[in-house]
């Protein structure tokens, strides 16, 4: 179920990217502290990439992600990166270590793949909520109502509607 939720979430982002021009994707929005939709998308992608690429060695450090500027300026590159994640995200749960710190390890704690996958999903939804603020400037862009909304909020809203 978790992997399916991650895949569905990433497919929502791909659907959005297919509608954006590279100019819209890389435009710096005042409402996003002069960040772009592309920068937020790259951030989502690179955390997933970091998790997946370090799965085998068992040590995850999100501070050491690549920060590839092409992913934040070209929708086609962002889509390719997400499609790669979609093809590699389904893995068995296993114990991992997560480290913090770029030059020296400041913190190291036990975690596992599913915990980090859930973290990445929640992190993605958070950034999608920010992206949604920028998308409101483009009325021609269509996103689902639940884009950037946590699953618990969706469930709560459904309960309130009954």
TrEMBL record:
InterPro entries: DinB/YfiT-like
Domain of life assignment: Bacteria
SUPFAM superfamilies tied to this protein: DinB/YfiT-like putative metalloenzymes
Protein known as: DinB family protein
Organism expressing this protein natively: Flavobacterium okayamense
